[in-house]
Design goal:
Immunoglobulin-like, mainly beta, elongated, 7 helices, 9-stranded mixed β-sheet, 2 domains
C-alpha cells in the first residue's frame, strides 16, 4: 500500500524507578523544648522542583514552605513551616504535641485545600510543561516518618509523589513534529499518606518539555494506564498537517507514584513512490484463533465441502468449514464454520426476525459472547468467588440455538431483562456485568446494579477496553495484542447489512494474516438474521481491505470489512467500515491477588 509520510511507533520502553540521590540539609537547632526537624529531598535524574547541584541532589531554598501533618495518638494537627535563615519556622515544640510516638507527614509545595476535607490537597497540573519553570510547578513532593516516644528530632525525606513520562523519538523525525501527552491532570493528594485520588476523571493534552534532541518529559498524576490503551491513546503527534495517535500496549498497567515510564518510539516514513511495508515474521502467513478455541483454520476453497443453498437446511456437519454452492448466474463466494460443543467460541444470536424485541441489541449479544468466553476461562476463580460471596452467582449457561430455544444464552437474556431494545456499546456491557461500571451504556434500567464480581473488580478495574482508531497500523496492533495476550475481540462496523444500516457490533474469533503479517481475513459471528445461520450458529469468513476513508471526518479509519472475492476472482463491490475494536482481558492479575492459592 503506497502511503505518504506514514509514521508508526514501536514501544520499546520500560518502567524504572526514579534515580534518587539524598543529602541531609536544613537542620534547625533547638533546646530541650523544641523539636529538631531535618529535611532532605530526592531529585529527578534531571532538573526537578528543587535547586540541583553537581551531584544531582536537591536542597530547600530560602522562602520554601511545606505543609506538615502531625498525629500523636488520636490527636492530629496541621501546620505550615517556612525555611528561613537555615531553619524551619515556627519550630515544632515537643511539649505541645506530647511525648508519645508521632507520625509526621508533609507536602511540598503548599497546596490549596478542598472544601470539607482537611486531610487532602488539590492537584491541578499545568498543561504547558514546556519550560523548566512550568514543569517544576507540576513536581509535588511527599515525606513521611515516625518519631519514637521521647525523640527530639526527626528527618523528613521528600520523594516524588507523582509520575514522570519520558519520550525518546528515534528514526525519521519530522522537523515540524509537535508532541502532546494525554493525561488526567486534576485530582487530590492526601497529606496523611501521599495517595493521589481522581474524583472526576477529565483528560487534557500536556505540552511536554524537550530535554534533548527528540527527547521529551512531562509529569502526570499516578493513575491506571488502561485509559491510554484505547480511544485517543497516550500521545498525539502532529506534523505536515497530519495527526496520528499512539496508544499504550497492555504491558504498561499503571503509572505508579515515585516512578517514571520511559518510552522509546521509532518513527518510520514511507516515500510516496516506495512501498515500505514492514514484514512481521511472527504473524506472516499465520492463522490465529482467540485463546482457547479448538476449531480448525480454513483449509482452502478446494478442500471444503460445497453445500447447495437451493434448499436451506439446519443439520450441517458440526465443527466443519463449508462453502455455499450457488446457481451458475450468481457469483457470491460464502464460507462458514459451524459451531460444535467444546469448540471454544460462542454465537449469541437475536431471535428469529427479531420477534423477541432484540433487533437493536447487537452490542448485548456481542458482550454476551465475550462474557461466556471470559467466564469459561476464569471458571476456577469464578467458582472460588461465588463460594466466598454467596448470592453473587451470575448467569452462565449457553446452549446451541434452536428454533424452539431462541433465547439460548442466559447472559444475553439478562441483558435483555435490564436494557430496552436500543443501541449501546459492547465494551460497556462487559464491564457493567463484571464491575457495575455503567459508562458507555444507554438507557440502563438497572443503574443500582453493582456487577456480579464487584467484590474483586472495582469500577476502575476495566476488563474490556476499546479503540476507535482504525488505521491499518492501529487495527493490526490491537489484533496482534489480542492473540499475544490471550484476549477476546469484539468489533463494530458501519453499513454491514447495507449502505444505510448504521453501526453493528459482532465478535471476532480468529484471523488470517498475509505475507507481511497484516490481517487479511476475519473469522467472526454475526448476531443478525440468526434464522439464516447454518445450524443457527456459525462463523463467517470475510476479507479485510485497507484504504483511506472516503470522508474526511476521521482520517484514521482505513480498515474495511468486505465479502470474499466473487467466484471468478473479482473483488466484491460491497464493504463496510470497521469503526472500533474491543479487547476483553481475563485479568488474571486481579484474580490471582484475590485468590492466590488457585493455580
Amino acid at each position: 500500500m503506497r502511503q505518504l509520510n506514514k509514521l508508526w511507533a514501536v514501544l520499546l520502553g520500560s518502567m524504572c524507578f526514579l534515580i534518587s540521590c539524598d543529602r541531609t540539609e536544613d537542620i534547625s537547632f533547638s533546646d530541650n523544648e523544641y523539636f529538631t526537624l531535618e529535611c532532605a529531598k530526592s531529585a529527578w535524574s534531571q532538573e526537578s522542583r528543587t535547586a540541583i547541584d553537581d551531584e544531582g541532589s536537591g536542597h530547600f531554598e530560602e522562602g520554601n514552605r511545606i505543609d506538615v501533618w502531625m498525629k500523636a495518638g488520636e490527636e492530629t494537627s496541621n501546620v505550615g513551616l517556612q525555611y528561613e535563615s537555615g531553619k524551619w519556622t515556627p519550630s515544632l515544640k515537643r511539649v505541645n504535641n506530647g511525648q508519645e510516638a508521632w507520625t509526621l507527614s508533609a507536602l511540598y509545595p503548599v497546596l490549596s485545600k478542598p472544601v470539607g476535607d482537611e486531610t487532602r490537597r488539590i492537584l491541578n497540573l499545568p498543561l504547558n510543561q514546556s519550560t523548566i519553570t512550568n514543569q517544576q510547578e507540576a513536581d509535588i513532593l511527599f515525606a513521611q516518618t515516625t518519631v519514637g516516644a521521647g525523640d527530639t528530632s526527626a528527618k523528613l525525606l521528600f520523594k516524588h509523589a507523582l509520575h514522570r513520562i519520558n519520550i525518546h523519538l528515534k528514526g525519521t523525525v519530522p522537523e515540524d513534529l509537535e508532541l502532546k501527552i494525554r493525561s488526567c491532570t486534576n485530582g487530590e493528594i492526601s497529606l496523611v499518606d501521599g495517595r493521589v485520588y481522581l474524583p472526576n476523571k477529565s483528560y487534557y493534552w500536556i505540552t511536554p518539555r524537550q530535554t534533548a534532541e527528540h527527547t521529551y518529559s512531562a509529569i502526570i498524576l499516578p493513575q491506571e494506564a488502561s485509559d491510554y490503551q484505547r480511544g485517543d491513546g497516550l500521545l498525539r503527534l502532529t506534523f505536515g498537517g497530519k495527526e496520528i495517535s499512539y496508544s499504550l500496549t497492555s504491558e504498561v498497567l499503571s503509572f505508579q507514584p515515585g516512578m517514571q515510564t520511559t518510552l522509546n518510539l521509532t518513527l518510520k516514513s514511507a516515500d510516496e513512490d516506495v512501498d515500505d511495508e514492514v514484514v512481521d515474521m511472527e504473524f506472516a502467513n499465520q492463522t490465529r484463533w482467540v485463546y482457547g478455541i479448538t476449531s480448525p483454520a480454513f483449509p482452502g476453497r478446494d478442500n471444503v465441502q460445497t453445500i447447495p443453498v437451493t434448499t436451506w437446511i439446519t443439520d450441517y456437519p458440526e465443527g466443519e468449514w463449508f462453502r455455499n454452492g450457488y446457481a451458475a448466474d450468481i457469483l457470491n463466494e460464502v464460507e462458514y464454520l459451524t459451531w460444535k460443543e467444546g469448540c471454544g467460541w460462542y454465537d449469541c444470536n437475536k431471535t428469529f426476525e427479531y420477534k423477541g424485541g432484540d433487533g437493536n441489541m447487537c452490542w448485548a449479544a456481542t458482550a454476551s459472547n465475550l462474557l461466556h468466553w471470559w467466564l469459561n476461562h476464569n471458571s476456577k476463580y469464578v467458582q472460588a468467588y461465588e463460594k466466598a460471596h454467596p448470592g453473587n452467582s451470575c448467569p452462565k449457561e449457553y446452549r446451541q440455538m434452536t428454533e424452539a430455544d431462541q433465547n439460548h444464552s442466559d447472559i444475553f437474556n439478562f441483558f435483555k431483562q435490564n436494557f430496552p431494545n436500543l443501541g449501546s456499546w459492547e465494551t460497556g456491557g462487559v464491564n457493567w456485568f463484571i464491575n457495575g461500571d455503567g459508562q458507555k451504556l444507554n438507557a440502563n434500567s438497572n443503574k443500582d446494579f453493582k456487577g456480579f464480581f464487584s467484590e474483586v473488580f472495582s469500577k476502575d478495574n476495566a476488563v474490556a477496553t476499546d479503540t476507535y482508531n482504525m488505521s491499518k497500523e492501529n487495527f493490526n496492533r490491537w489484533m496482534k495484542e489480542a492473540f499475544r495476550m490471550n484476549k477476546a475481540i469484539g468489533f463494530s462496523v458501519f453499513g454491514f447489512a447495507n449502505a444505510g444500516s448504521g453501526m453493528h457490533a459482532m465478535t471476532i474469533w480468529g484471523a488470517e494474516f498475509d505475507a507481511n503479517g497484516n490481517v487479511a481475513y476475519l473469522y467472526f459471528c454475526d448476531n443478525n438474521q440468526s434464522e439464516m445461520d447454518p445450524n443457527y450458529g456459525a462463523i463467517k469468513r470475510y476479507k479485510v481491505v485497507y484504504q483511506l476513508g472516503e470522508t474526511s471526518y476521521d482520517k484514521t479509519r482505513e480498515t474495511f470489512l468486505a465479502p470474499l472475492d466473487n467466484i471468478e476472482g473479482t473483488p466484491s463491490k460491497l464493504k463496510s467500515m470497521i469503526c472500533s475494536l474491543t479487547l476483553v482481558d481475563l485479568r488474571l492479575d486481579i484474580w490471582q491477588k484475590a485468590f492466590p492459592d488457585i493455580k
